[in-house]
Amino acid sequence: MNKVQRRVLRLELAGAVFIILLGSMLHFTFELSGRNPVVGVFSAVNESVWEHLKLAYWPAVAYMGVEHRRLKTVGSFLTAKAIGICLMPVIIVSSFYAYNVFIEENLLLDILIFIVAVVTGQLASYRLMTRENLGAYGRISLITLVSMAIVFTVFTFHPPKLEVFRDPVSGNYGFQGFSKPG
């Protein structure tokens, strides 16, 4: 492992810690803010699976912004980060529904899945930045990340009436009180 690879790995692992800690805090910020809709864009507004995906996405994008100053010239930074960030919600959703086939929802397992998803996403970014040449996909990567931000924002207030968006506690969808069960 050369000096650049070590630097990238350290930053990606530090990013995993940052994302896990900030994502954990964002679980509570909506209620602590007095249910502020602006805070709800970045925080979980209910206990649905969908809302918990924001807890990985927004901190990962924030960390990518911080990390960009140090790694923008390394490999395929934007594409590697986009793939890593997209991987996180895929792992969360697939793991959550896979284990729910066999056992009831388990908070400890949910937390473990979140941690595994974040670490896997960050390690995928590391691997792609240091081993692959994906520079030609930068524009598509940026469009993907911006599209995800738009979808997370819109679906906070206007979610489809699908199970992944339903709060299992209240039965509401999205911002509670804004989008009633239907």
Offer a concise description of the structure:
This protein is mostly helical and about 180 residues long.
Explain what this protein looks like in three dimensions.
With 182 residues, the protein is an all-alpha fold. The chain has one domain. The protein is built from 6 helices and no strands. The longest helix has 30 residues. The radius of gyration is 17 Å and the shape is globular. The C terminus is likely disordered.
Domain unit count: 1
Characterize the largest beta sheet: strand count, sense, and whether it forms a barrel: none
What is the count of DSSP helices, taking H or I runs of 4+ residues? Answer: 6
Low-pLDDT runs: 178-182
Please identify the oligomeric state: single chain
Question: Count of DSSP E strands?
Answer: 0
Q: State the helicity in percent bands.
A: over 70%
State mean pLDDT (0 to 100 scale).
Answer: 91
SSE run:
HHHHHH
Feature tags:
182 residues, mainly alpha, 0% strand, disordered C terminus
List the helices and strands and how they pair.
Elements: H1 3-32, H2 37-42, H3 49-71, H4 77-102, H5 107-131, H6 138-157
Helix pairs in contact: 1-3, 1-5, 3-4, 3-6, 4-5, 4-6
